[in-house]
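Sanity check

After download, print the first record. It should look like this:
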Amino acid sequence: EVQLVESGGGLVQAGGSLRLSCAASGFTFDDFAVGWVRQAPGKEREGVSCISSDDGNPYYTESVKGRFTISRDNAKNTVYLQMNSLKPEDTAVYYCAIPYYSPREYRSSCLQGLDYYGMDYWGKGTLVTVSS
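Expected structure tokens:
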């Protein structure tokens, strides 16, 4: 069974930091790009960041550039999102996602032209709340 389990969310004051983790199992982790997608209350889901299978050039949505850093440890089947200088507008449920249903040739890459970088299989999410 494919599983993506997020952790690390919580309540933090503006300006603070959190590190989210996504533990993956049930598939060949090294073959897949992994993304972080968030959904704020009352808003649509938004692609936040994505990293390719080979740890190549990561992508970030404009609002988090310079503050968030995505990384992966293929030996641990885990992806991280380091979030610094958090703002109240970063408050959201953060989901880890992979392009599980994509054709094999697209699974290793972040597809910048598609919604959520082409991610289509989600974890259950972890809540991040940033207080002002």
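If your output differs, re-run the checksum step. Summary of this record's structure: The chain has a mean pLDDT of 95.
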